Amino acid sequence: MTSSELWGPESAERYDSEETEMTSAAVLGATVDFLADLAGDGRALEFAIGTGRVGVPLRERGVPVTGIELSEHMAAVLHRKVDEETLPVVLGDMATTVVPGEFSLVYLVYNTISNLLTQEEQVECFRNAARHLRPGGRFVIELGVPPLRFLPPGQVAVPFDVSERHLGFDTIDPVEQLLVSHHFTRDGEDGRYRREASRHRYAWPAELDLMARIAGLQLERRVADWDGSPFTQDSPKHVSVWRKPR
Q1: What stretches pass through the bilayer (predicted)?
Q2: pLDDT (0 to 100) of residue 1
């Protein structure tokens, strides 16, 4: 059993409409360019493909894409956009589920590796990526840098969004490396807010590099975003690329 929390039907139906920034042309254009360049003339496998936010436009770019997704409800939303034959999705968790064939690219975007709540499962996710990659293939992860620099002594919460329709903050347990994202979203005009929370295990870039080494992968590149900007000590996230030796 995976430790990942399962997205239900209501969350799946709301997902695209609530992630308008992440589905914008500016974000998706750079993301798809980056991934398509790495895939080359090979196939791509997306772990936790969700509603196809990235997988569908990457397939439209001409890259054959297969997905692994834990939630059948998220996969159902994806297959309203594109059929199963065009973009097949295997239901299962990203740490252990195996699909046929070899891939030039395996990728995992938008902090999703943190949905695996134990270090052991995150290591198995790297091993699963390596299992699917052909020699010379790449594994790509997009992940936020833990926001611990924003925590003064005695404080356990960090706000990440304060807007008209949404309040969001993270509470952090640095001993267990667990982060809980709290969301208060205003649904209607009556002033009521919907409360949701999700758990995540955060990991530093250096810890991910060790996981990659355990899986037989080598760090090739780390940048601050899909546009290739340099990763620095002030970067709030990173896009990292590991390569399977030939």
Answers
A1: none
A2: 54
